[in-house]
Amino acid sequence: MTDRPRSPYRSTRRGQRRPATPPTPKDPARRVAYDVLRAVDTRDAYANLLLPAQLRDRGVTGRDAALATELTYGTLRRQGSYDAILDACVDRSLRSVDAEVLPLLRLGAHQLLSTKIPPHAAVSATVDLARRVVGQHRAKFANAVLRKVSVRDLDEWLAIVAPAAETDRAGHLAVVHSHPRWIVEALAAALGERPDGGLAETERLLAAHNERPRVTLVAKPGRAAVADLVSEGAAEARYSPYAAYLPEGDPAALRPVRQGRAAVQDEASQLVALALARVPVEGTDARWLDMCAGPGGKAGLLAGLAGQREAHLLAAELQPARAGLVASAVRRSVRDAARVVVADSTRPAWREAAFDRVLVDVPCTGLGALRRRPEARWRRTPQTAEELAPLQRALLHRALDSTRRGGVVAYVTCSPHLPETRGIVDAVRAERTDVAAIRAADHLTEAPDAAAGDYVQFWPHRHGTDAMFLALLRRV
Prior knowledge:
With 476 residues, the protein is an alpha/beta fold. The termini are far apart. The strands form three sheets. Strands 7, 8, 9, 10, 11, 12, 13, 14 and 15 form a nine-stranded mixed beta sheet that branches. The chain is built from 20 helices and 15 strands. It is globular. The chain has four domains: 28-154, NusB-like (N-utilizing Substance Protein B Homolog, Chain A, Orthogonal Bundle), CATH 1.10.940; 162-209, no CATH class; 215-264; 267-475, Vaccinia Virus protein VP39 (Rossmann fold, 3-Layer(aba) Sandwich), CATH 3.40.50.150. The longest helix has 20 residues, at 382-401. One of its GO terms (biological process) is methylation. Keywords: Methyltransferase, RNA-binding, S-adenosyl-L-methionine, Transferase.
């Protein structure tokens, strides 16, 4: 009697045959983490978008999902430190390492240096993954490198590979806290610190970028209250009257979030939208505009506020896919107060001086959200900011042109980088005679310590928020 080959189908009670459930991949958490890291490297994928999709599509849940999340974000946050250490453990330059192998080495280094996974388990599991994704020969190379990494802890390695703090403070912080040097220097300048002055507050900010951010929720005005979120396990927030903190768990598990009455939104992002809505305007207050609305967080909040005042919000977004996200964010707002259009706000589809309030949240380097998008620090360069500056200036000019006399504009960036914040606003103010600055902190009394002259600047290490910048300007 000969053995029959195993059928790829299994029988049901009624004799029907259907495909058998495929076996669960070995070590799904590390495989997901590797695939996301590889995609970030090779096709500029965003981890915060790709990782949840990968976990969902592969059915990875529970402890495996938590491990995949820690390995992905932890590796991206500490990538600069790990690369300096790995470079000391590779016989040749780290730049010569295969692009398929480098994410494995970083993944292994993170397990060895920043988790409680036993060293032998970290090396063994990573090498086993390497055999499956890059082959036996390169797995041996990964094994040799990771065993060298395992002989010291993180502090011992950093003492070896980081420049001396006494002679190169910025370079030292760049390696120890895993940021490109130019970002360290840019953040120090935004904080008013000099590289030769110790950079104490800059170091606190860099450390905050490597901490896991808390989840902040927004109760959409007119559709939910903070009490609804608190009743589901959230805690009242420190600043925004519409915010709540979720200590743990999946936000989608909360009923108000599932129903679209609440959403995830950073607290500083809520506050800059609130400040725009709070500035007094004389005359009509019926037409509001969000010029760069995607993905829709601020538009969702403004739509609720506008609806409560019988005003109407027009939300414009250049990219159709992001416009779809905006439409979801404002759906079923109070009085259906929002409309979404796909439009290029540098060439407005509306007439000039048509709006009473205008929000322009310009495209920027995103240096204020490095806690949530750690890979952004490795993609941005000083040239990125230079290339964005003309667009940022043009958008602010168009925002002012779109605002009636006596109306107000909120210029917002999720970056504290001076050339993107006060540099843009001051340049535009110097080019126009119809603009007056409004002291933004007067309309954000919840956070008086965020005042920066006429402007407002939030910080992760001071406020626990993204580093959001706000300037309020009146058309006069």
